[in-house]
Each structure stands twice: as structure tokens, then as C-alpha cells.
Design goal:
about 0% strand; globular
Length: about 280
């Protein structure tokens, strides 16, 4: 296999779109928490650390999931032979090293969040992923905590806590929908995911209830006066997209999970717009 094919396979392991998106979420957390021009270096380090850690987590996840992916996602780099399992593991280690190096220059609170998330991520791949609902909660927390990490990088870890809640719950719901899609491969591998443990429809209803909580939480910045009508103009459509996607998950889970991600991104734009208006 050519070096270009191997390099492409390694890049795919990171799920670059997800890594970049995670970096954007960290930037958003810092911005919403009150970052200034003087914080540019810390924000850049936090964004890089998040992208490195996300890529590393995705790569090590593919390493541990290589047998499941042979059934559910045979086009992934390891099952299709683009990279070996050993190469994926070493590449993940190199990315984790990059995350550690860039995190080291940040405030203590940000470092503490990064260390906790790293331990949680490693535990997820080996311990939590196959436990009913636990793996979904872990992924939701890790996604939402990118906003806390961004805020911590500029000395305000709770400056974007509503985004943490909204993104965490939206991701939890999306992960449940993804598990419904992957029931066949997960059952063959012996995993006891939430849809397998309690049934697919009950799992989807659990995700729907969680999403309803997230929608209520999204109104808090407007109700308490943190952000005004511009924020609301984005968040209301975002909530509508996510609620509709949650309803569609009962009939079209693959479509629903894409729409859940789109709704979350619209909400992120709403927080950015709300912060810009405050600055003006």
C-alpha cells in the first residue's frame, strides 16, 4: 500500500471534521466566557489541545472497535486495511502527546479538566462503552466539556455552562440514536448498549426526554438577561431542528443523528451571535 493511502487512512482515523468541530466548540466556550485579545495564545493552545485529543480519542476508539467496525463500518481505515491496528495505536499515542504539550501552557483548572477528560476517554474505550447508557453519558459529557475547557483557558470555566448542558444532552441523544443504528454489530460483539438492554424504542424515548431538558436549558441565557433577541433568533430554530430530529429518530435514525448535529451547530452560532451583540 502506498504512503499516500496510509497517510489518508491515518487522517481518517482522527475523523478530521469532528476534530475541527471540537476545536471550534472550545473556541466558542472561550469566546462566550469572555475571552479578550490578550487571551489569544491561551485560546489557540486550548483549541489545538482539543483537536489533538479528539483525533487521538477517535483513533484509539477505532483500534478497540476494529472487530465491531468490520460488521458495522467496514469502510473504516482498519477494517479495509488502509492502516494496521498497531499503526492506529501508535498514531493515537502521538496525538495524545500533542494534546498534553499544548495543554501544559494553560491555567491549572484547564489542565485539570484535560486530565480528567483524558482518563475518562481511556476508561470509556475499555470499560464504559458497552454499559447501557454509561458510554452515551460519557461521550455527551466529553463533548459538552469542550466549552468548559475553553472557558477555563481564559479563567472562566463556568462561563459557558449552558452550552455545556445543551451540547452534552444533544450529544447524548445523538449517541443513543447511533446505538440504535448499530444494534446488529453491537449484539454480535456482545456489547450491552442501551437499545439492547431496554429495547430500541425505550432507548429513543430516553433520548427524547433528555432533549426536552436541553431545550428548556437553552432558554436560560435569554430569561436571565445574559443574551437578547439575536440569541433567541438562532436558538429557537436550533431547538426546533433538534426536537424534529429526535422525533424522526423513531423512523429514520441515520437522518436524525445528522440533523441533531446540525441543530447543535446552529445553537453554537446563536451563543456566538449573542456574545457579539453584548460586546457591541
Amino acid at each position: 500500500m502506498s504512503w499516500r493511502s496510509r497517510a489518508r487512512g491515518l487522517l481518517e482515523l482522527t475523523r478530521p471534521g469532528n476534530a475541527v468541530a471540537a476545536g471550534v466548540l472550545t473556541f466558542t466556550g472561550a469566546f462566550v466566557a469572555g475571552a479578550t485579545v490578550a487571551d489569544a495564545g491561551a485560546v489557540a493552545a486550548a483549541v489545538l489541545a482539543t483537536a489533538f485529543a479528539t483525533g487521538a480519542g477517535n483513533a484509539v476508539n477505532d483500534y478497540f472497535d476494529r472487530e465491531i467496525d468490520a460488521v458495522n463500518r467496514p469502510d473504516r481505515p482498519i477494517p479495509r486495511g488502509a492502516v494496521s491496528a498497531r499503526e492506529a495505536l501508535w498514531f493515537s499515542g502521538a496525538l495524545f502527546a500533542g494534546a498534553v504539550a499544548t495543554t501544559a501552557v494553560l491555567p491549572v483548572t484547564a489542565i485539570a479538566i484535560a486530565v480528567f477528560n483524558l482518563l475518562l476517554l481511556l476508561a470509556y474505550t475499555k470499560l464504559f462503552k458497552g454499559l447501557p447508557g454509561v458510554g452515551n453519558l460519557v461521550v455527551g459529557f466529553l463533548t459538552g466539556s469542550t466549552f468548559l475547557f475553553g472557558g477555563a483557558a481564559v479563567g472562566a470555566p463556568l462561563g459557558a455552562w449552558v452550552l455545556f448542558v445543551l451540547a452534552g444532552i444533544a450529544t447524548l441523544t445523538r449517541e443513543i440514536v447511533k446505538d440504535v443504528e448499530d444494534v446488529a454489530g453491537d449484539r454480535e460483539e456482545g456489547l450491552n448498549t442501551l437499545p439492547i438492554a431496554i429495547g430500541e424504542r425505550r432507548a429513543l424515548w430516553a433520548g427524547a426526554v433528555a432533549m426536552a431538558v436541553a431545550v428548556v436549558a437553552s432558554a436560560i441565557p435569554f430569561v436571565n438577561g445574559t443574551f437578547g433577541p439575536v440569541y433567541l433568533a438562532f436558538v429557537v430554530p436550533a431547538d426546533a431542528v433538534m426536537l424534529r430530529a429526535t422525533a424522526r429518530s423513531f423512523s429514520a435514525p441515520e437522518v436524525a443523528q445528522r440533523h441533531l448535529k446540525a441543530g447543535m451547530l446552529i445553537a453554537v452560532v446563536g451563543f456566538i451571535a449573542g456574545r457579539v451583540v453584548v460586546l457591541l
